[in-house]
Amino acid sequence: MTDDDIPQIHSMPSADSSTGPVDLGPVQVSGPSADTPPGGPAPLVDPGGPGGPANLASERDGAPTRGASGPIGRMGAPAIVCLIAAILVAVDQVTKLWAVAALSGHARIPIIGDLLGLVLVRNPGAAFSLATGQTWIFSVVALVVVVVVIRASRELGARAWTIALGLVLGGAVGNLIDRLVRAPGPLRGHVVDFIDYGGQFVGNVADIAIVGAAGAIMVLSVLGINLDGTRAGEDDDHHGAVTAAGAAIGPEGGGETRRSRRARRRDESGARA
Predict the structure, then answer these.
(1) DSSP assignment, residue 38?
(2) Which residues, in sequence order, are bridge partners of residue 193?
(3) Could you check whether the bond before residue 184 is cis, i.e. omega within 30 degrees of 0?
(4) Within-domain flag for 216
(5) What tens digit of pLDDT does each residue of 73-114 get?
(6) CA-to-CA distance for 213 and 224, rounded, in angstroms?
(7) Would 14 be classed as within a structural domain?
(8) Hey, which residues are catalytic here?
């Protein structure tokens, strides 16, 4: 028997074999399809993301963006303002009912000596028993404040402003209820005050909220923080960024936003001046 009579066993070449390249057959390379735009495929953009059409559309319509942080992005500023106001009004009215029931006919009850105490006072004037005798004027002012705050809440984009305006709205409504329903009559009703500050002022929960909100608004104004959350001087930069983003998205999702339109009108007014 010779070597030619023995069957030969041939092993299949492996992928890492050094005997030579392995023929994998024809390789097809796909080119751009007929549907591909001339500039190449469009970048992947999350429609609801910070740069997406949905976010720019929300900003254009004045609605909170999907990417906004905090409660403003989840519920909307007007809803948060009304929620804060509703809670404050409830607390204010409950404490006033308690004061009328518990403090009527009693002398001043000290809490911290002469600095802080409880005494029931029916106030025909403004906060902390100021300007008594002008009840109807303060009733009208309170109504105007309520309307202004509700309208301004549509432009809010900063949590601090949202909380401040919620406190203003709640305080105004809390005292307005007293002026509408308490004696001697509608728009002339006396506000229930019961927190005595060293014999200088007597107030209530609504007064505390109004004064606290006024202080917060002063701080925000000094810091240059606008209602929409931007700082003074940043509108022009934001205008350029939003306009560029709107142009990149195109007519289907972009366009001129409300904020960029305001900035453009300011620029045109300055140029004409």
Answers:
(1) T
(2) 121
(3) yes
(4) yes
(5) 567 999 999 999 999 999 999 999 999 999 999 999 999 999
(6) 16
(7) no
(8) 193, 207
- pLDDT confidence band for 127 (50 / 70 / 90): low
Give the CA distances from residue 60 to residues 7, 80, 94, 170, in Å, rounded to whole numbers and listed in that order: 82, 21, 41, 29
Q: Which amino acid appears at position 108 of this protein?
A: R
Q: How far apart are CA 73 and CA 67, in angstroms?
A: 7
Is there a contact between 253 and 54 (Cβ–Cβ < 8 Å)? yes
Task: Look at the block and give the residue holding tokens 């300055």.
Answer: 270
Calpha distance 269→273 (Å, rounded): 6
Longest distance between any two alpha carbons in the chain, whole Å:
134
End-to-end CA distance of the chain: 113
R_g (Cα) of the chain, nearest Å: 34
Report the C-alpha gap between 125 and 5 in whole angstroms: 124
Q: Residue 29: inside a domain, yes or no? A: no
Residue 197, domain extent: 78-223
**β 201-203/116-123 pair status:** unpaired
68 has a pLDDT exceeding 70: no
Q: Are 206 and 134 in contact (CB under 8 A)?
A: no
**Per-residue pLDDT tens digits for 130-168:** 656 667 888 889 999 999 999 999 999 999 999 999 999
To which H or E segment does residue 205 belong? helix 205-223
Query: Distance between CA 46 and CA 53 in Å, rounded?
Result: 8
Give the count of domains, the chain.
1
